[in-house]
Amino acid sequence: MPTRRTFCLAALVVASLTAAGTITVAADEPLDRAAAVLRTDAIESLAFEATGRYYQFGQAPAPELPWPAFDVTEYSATFDYARAAVHARYHRVQVQEPGRARPHGEQTMDQFAVKGYSWNLTPAITAMPTNLAERNAELWSSPQGFVKAARTHAAVIGRAPGGNVTATFTIEGGGRYEGVISAAGDVLRVRTAIDSPVTGDTPIEWRFSEYRDFGGVRFPARIERVVAGLPWYDLRVSAVRINDAAAFDVPAEVVATPVPVVTNVTVTELAPGLLFLGGTTHNTVVVAQAGGIVVVEAPLTEARSEAVIAKVRELFPGQAITQVINTHTHFDHAGGLRTYVDEGVPVVTHARNAAYYQRVWAAPRSIAPDRLARSRRTPRFTTFTTKLALADPQHPIEIHAITGSGHNDAFAMVFLPKDGVLIEGDAWTPTAPGAKPPATPSPLWINLLENVERLKLPVERIAPLHGAVQTLADLRAAVGKK
User: Fold this and answer.
1) Residue 384's domain is classified under what CATH number?
2) Are 236 and 71 in contact (CB under 8 A)?
3) Do 61 and 407 contact (CB within 8 A), yes or no?
4) One domain, residues 270 and 246
5) Contact at 8 Å (CB) between 113 and 132?
6) Coil, helix or strand at residue 164
7) Residue 47, by phi and psi: left (phi above 0), alpha (psi -120 to 50) or beta?
8) Is the model's pLDDT at 26 over the cut of 70?
9) 154 domain residue, yes or no
10) What residues make up the domain containing 467?
11) For labelling, which of 108, 133, 286, 304 has a CA lying 20 to 30 Å from the CA of 52?
């Protein structure tokens, strides 16, 4: 978990590098030596193959736990320095931790970035603008890429312990980079930062070790990447190639829509005063109570929250939003919470989640300041551990902890007893129309039904935070029960 201590340590590390940089040495000498050792002048592109571990940023199974692990059976990355292009492809299989029942997760990812665009093939073409900074950072944090960028961006060179040197530079529009180069000319580590709607200015560090010769190219046999103080990748390199990168074009659909539209808000009435808001990958439910409007879930980003808030004000003029309920800390479900905090709306969430949000929301936000960073409002929380009731004559709300789920340990579902509607996110994501259901029901689906039955909730309909409204019979059928 990225704690206040993690971010403070990151700041101290940056400060120490800056302090080291005050004792300057001739810039040309260490960079020229590194360029010669790493053959950067002869390398226009570099590709490597590897295996290892990947950890999914922003999807920790509890706020105090690391990102979940995946075994990476195949990994290849191509850095085209001449075209400033990146292509990474990897096959990942989710690690099944002891005592945590997860569905089998296996996926091949194809990721691209060039000319200010970023997209995935999964297998459909999907614009991924939020990943552009990370992919550019991967390009210029690679050993050869870092030395190339340091030489062309007037790096400030300083001394570091053990005969090493530091190199610090800024790429216009691409952030600040700080690295350590050994006396032998090897790049040992590189640090930069990217923006996250949850963790703000999020530090990333690449660590390179076990350098050896790969067919005439000196390159690290081990690459570790750390984000927000936690492991992100740990790769063992098996092969390196140079100067064979093929150019690729930005897909027409990405050029046409480089940023997925999250501001389209569709409205489905589940009952008078109970609305299901869709229009993108993540849904929100709005409940009109006598004391004001309760919003269930603030996913994705500030832009999505602003669109939902505007729709609420259009539909319920003059009525204030009194609370926003958060189901769990996964970043896609929590990325829009800060907008409600800026509005002065209290966040209702599990007690473990509140402590987490207080820590990460205190991080600096200089890369992409949001509304809360400017207003500096103090977050307010209403918390629970097992159950919380929000009384109302028309639409009373019950918030229940989902126990025993392999997805998250501080996980909530929301039930409206008078309406028979259950709201949940990620515990059950219904199979899309026309898609083939999994051969084996997900243990997360089974667990959700077990929680409903344990609590004896008279559920009639389910409003999932991904997908369309379903019935309890649909969930029972999905897990193989009549």
Assistant:
1) 3.60.15.10
2) no
3) yes
4) no
5) yes
6) coil
7) beta
8) no
9) yes
10) 266-478
11) 133
What average pLDDT is seen over the chain? 94
End-to-end Cα spacing for the chain: 41
Task: Report the distance separating Cα 208 and Cα 157, nearest Å.
Answer: 19
Tell whether 397 and 459 lie within a shared domain: yes
Query: Do 128 and 177 belong to one domain?
Result: yes
- The whole-angstrom separation of Cα 312 and Cα 309 is 5
Answering whether pTM is above 0.90, one says yes
Helix and strand numbers (H, E) in the chain are 12, 26
The DSSP output letter for 381 is E
Shared-domain flag, residues 286 and 385: yes
- What letter represents residue 272's amino acid? P
Q: Give the pairing type, strands 175-181 and 187-196.
A: antiparallel
261 within domain boundaries? no
What one-character DSSP code corresponds to residue 248? -
Classify strands 321-325 and 292-296 as parallel, antiparallel or unpaired: parallel
**Are 100 and 82 contacting, i.e. CB atoms less than 8 angstroms apart?**
no
Q: What is the SS3 assignment for 49?
A: strand
On the question of pLDDT at 482 being above 80, the answer is no
pLDDT at 434: 86
